[in-house]
Amino acid sequence: MRAFHWQLLPSLALLRAVAGSPSFSSPVLGPTSPHLAQCLLSAPAYTFSCENTTAVNTCCVPTQGLVLQTQFWDTYTGLEAQGQKLPWKAWTIHGLWPDNCDGTFESYCDFSRQYDPKPDPPVLNNVTVPIVPGVKLDEVIKSFGRHDLLKYMNKFWVAQGQPSPEFWAHEFSKHATCFSTFDTTCYKNYKQHEEVVNFFDTVVQAYKQYPTYTFLASHGILPSNTTTYTLRAVLDALEAATGATPHVGCGADGQLNEVWYYSHSFGAPQLGVFKHLNTTFGATCPESGIRYLLRAPGSEA
Ligand SMILES: *[C@@H]1O[C@H](CO)[C@@H](O)[C@H](O)[C@H]1NC(C)=O
Ligand SMILES: *[C@@H]1O[C@H](CO)[C@@H](O)[C@H](O)[C@H]1NC(C)=O
Ligand SMILES: *[C@@H]1O[C@H](CO)[C@@H](O)[C@H](O)[C@H]1NC(C)=O
Ligand SMILES: *[C@@H]1O[C@H](CO)[C@@H](O)[C@H](O)[C@H]1NC(C)=O
Questions:
Q1: Where is the catalytic site (predicted)?
Q2: Residue partners of 191: CB distance under 8 A and separation at least 6
Q3: Any idea what the CATH number is for the domain that residue 105 is in?
């Protein structure tokens, strides 16, 4: 069972060694990371999210600590003509979500960081989610010089029916604003939108740990418009890879289209160390007759 990424611990030890240094840098954390060195110096701050009810530094461990890395299997984007295509032999990123420990969740936790042009839900507890147009997060990423990150996101974080940067804005404003470890106060000498770039880096790092296409392919589960699969076979493949049962989602016609991987993060999710857990939500796929469809011609890059 590979429930915990022990191979990252040498990096943590390195972090601990340099934590006191003002010129602190890390191979794990991106240049826009919060001041996580503070967490390493206060020993008990490090714990798995949701597993210690004693008050911890909320910059070090997320308060809404059931962490979900969510992915899509789409067969088209609708914006192929504009070059927005799906990656060959890879699922795409949906997001990284901070659920409450019991699996319930909150949304749009900070209206001052609302960049989503299409809030969903549009009204939350009787308050209309404001729409603040004009902040283009792809431009924000570029302004931090992170062309590498932008390139990766354009390839693997691909929206359907809307330009991908609008979808990134949705994911940031709806979900990341509820992650306490991305609060702007957690950053030393905070620079506007630093946490946005840090969140996107964190999502990419988590996504890379769950190569769903490969997990399924290694058990002979490949896209096909003629073969169907059982739920047991899909779950067997994903459980063998992660040691836990994710949520798998299907459309009305049994079309496999989502996987959500559940975890508790060791300290901040920015560190990328996750303990895999079973879904709290079950599956929305039929027991048999699951269709894992080929992408439409011209939709893959
Ligand atoms: C929970 O946190 C407290 C205080 O930070 C610490 O003393 C204790 O050892 C922790 N318990 C576990 C099980 O990690
Ligand atoms: C929303 O407004 C309706 C009608 O005024 C009221 O009945 C309901 O309790 C409100 N809900 C919340 C969550 O405030
Ligand atoms: C996940 O579910 C399986 C099967 O029900 C069970 O054997 C296992 O203990 C569960 N794992 C966790 C971490 O709860
Ligand atoms: C497979 O099915 C999908 C979804 O209906 C469709 O878009 C695609 O073109 C089909 N591919 C082939 C090769 O038939």
A1: 94, 171, 175
A2: none
A3: 3.90.730.10
Q: Which residues are catalytic?
A: 94, 171, 175
Examine the pLDDT at 53 and tell me if it is beyond 80. no
Which pLDDT score, from 0 to 100, does residue 1 have?
36
Nearest CA to ligand 1 atom 9: 44
Residue 227: which domain range?
6-277
Res. 227 pLDDT band, cuts 50 70 90: very high
Question: Does 286 map to a domain?
Answer: no
The binding-site residues of ligand 4, defined as CB within 6 angstroms of any ligand atom, are 75, 225, 293-294, 296-297
Residue 288 lies in a domain: no
- Is the residue at 72 inside a domain? yes
140, two tokens: 């924000």
User: Pocket residues for ligand 3 (CB within 6 Å)?
Assistant: 244-245, 277-278
Phi and psi, residue 243, nearest 5°: 80, 10
The answer to whether residue 1 is domain-embedded is no
For ligand 1, the distance from its centroid to the CA atom of residue 86, given in whole angstroms, is: 44
107 burial level (CB within 10 Å; 0-12, 13-18, 19+): middle
**Whether the predicted pLDDT of 25 surpasses 80:** no
pLDDT at 27 over 80: no
Asked whether the predicted pLDDT for residue 20 surpasses 70, the reply is no
CA 296 to centroid of ligand 2, rounded, Å:
44
Looking at the DSSP bridge assignments, the partners of residue 250 are 256
Average pLDDT over residues 53-82: 92
